[in-house]
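Module 6 notes. Inverse folding takes a fixed backbone as the condition and produces residue identities as the prediction. Think of it as a translation problem where the source language is geometry and the target language is the twenty amino acids. Below is one complete input and output pair. Work through it position by position during the lab.
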């Protein structure tokens, strides 16, 4: 179900339903507004096909009358489809699903490896386990036109569930690990390879063909749990790269820093990076279990997010009083 929220975050009474697969980690996985939304009204959806056979990126135009309490979505424009049949014995998980607009207002999509038995992430001709770039001709912002081309942009990923872009256009990825390491990777150049399934976490010994993560944590390492007063040691481990905050709220504490979190354990942390995207500080800032990401609200400059635990909430980040 798709809701349209007013600027005060109250929803219009009318909603729109989208038919999606609902097994395990399937569903409506991400929504992103076009950078030129004010001119074209386009919103992009990443969802699992109803039969569960794969995932799809579509574009639809929003038609809204806030005063009349109504909105609708135009017909689907299919931009990309990623079929699970590209791997042997796929599962209902490892769908990826994050979408973010980056350089030149192009759309970047994180696609999982399909949870199959083949090393598809290392096959540049296979769409699974990749970052895809979908480009548009934006000579007319009101009608951005899809550029038809191979969309594979980076490879060697397991399940890049979260993507964020910083103020310089660098793309950060949270790649969920198997049983060893949760990764934060940074994408600089087309064609970069992050090593999965040959490596999980930093390659040992170092492999010049692969790009090591800039940060992360090993499964079973309780360092970050021990720094969390609300420590939840139960459940699995799944990294979320939540947001790179460029706003001026929060007294500058979060400005130009990367916020990431542990989906199951619930801790939230703040990374300070230098000009080479090397970590210079990593500090605990809060606890939100089930947080899947954060977004700056242009109306007030504050950070809002959604959770999958505790009643599927919309939450707002505030500084402790």
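Target side of the pair, the amino acids:
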């Amino acid at each position: 179900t798709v809701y349209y929220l007013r600027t005060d975050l109250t929803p219009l009474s009318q909603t729109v339903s989208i038919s999606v697969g609902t097994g395990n980690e399937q569903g409506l996985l991400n929504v992103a507004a076009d950078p030129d939304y004010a001119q074209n009204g386009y919103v992009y959806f990443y969802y699992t096909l109803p039969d569960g056979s794969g995932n799809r990126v579509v574009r639809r135009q929003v038609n809204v009358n806030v005063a009349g309490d109504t909105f609708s979505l135009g017909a689907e424009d299919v931009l990309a489809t990623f079929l699970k049949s590209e791997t042997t014995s796929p599962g209902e998980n490892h769908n990826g699903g994050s979408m973010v607009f980056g350089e030149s207002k192009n759309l970047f999509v994180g696609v999982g490896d399909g949870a199959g038995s083949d090393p598809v992430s290392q096959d540049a001709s296979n769409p699974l386990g990749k970052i895809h770039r979908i480009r548009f001709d934006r000579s007319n912002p009101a009608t951005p036109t899809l550029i038809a081309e191979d969309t594979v942009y980076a490879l060697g990923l397991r399940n890049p569930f979260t993507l964020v872009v910083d103020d310089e256009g660098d793309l950060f990825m949270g790649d969920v690990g198997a049983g060893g390491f949760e990764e934060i990777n940074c994408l600089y150049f087309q064609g970069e390879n992050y090593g999965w399934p040959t490596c999980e976490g930093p390659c040992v010994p170092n492999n010049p063909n692969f790009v090591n993560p800039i940060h992360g944590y090993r499964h079973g390492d309780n360092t970050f749990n021990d720094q969390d007063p609300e420590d939840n040691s139960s459940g699995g481990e799944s990294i979320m790269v939540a947001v790179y905050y460029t706003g001026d709220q929060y007294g500058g504490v979060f400005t130009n820093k990367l916020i990431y979190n542990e989906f199951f354990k619930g801790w939230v942390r703040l990374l300070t990076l230098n000009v080479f995207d090397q970590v210079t500080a990593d500090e605990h800032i809060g606890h939100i279990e089930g947080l899947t990401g954060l977004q700056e609200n242009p109306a007030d400059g504050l950070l809002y997010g959604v959770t999958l635990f505790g009643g599927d909430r919309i939450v707002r980040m505030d500084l402790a009083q």
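Reference fact for the lab report: The CA atoms of residues 193 and 235 lie 30 Å apart.
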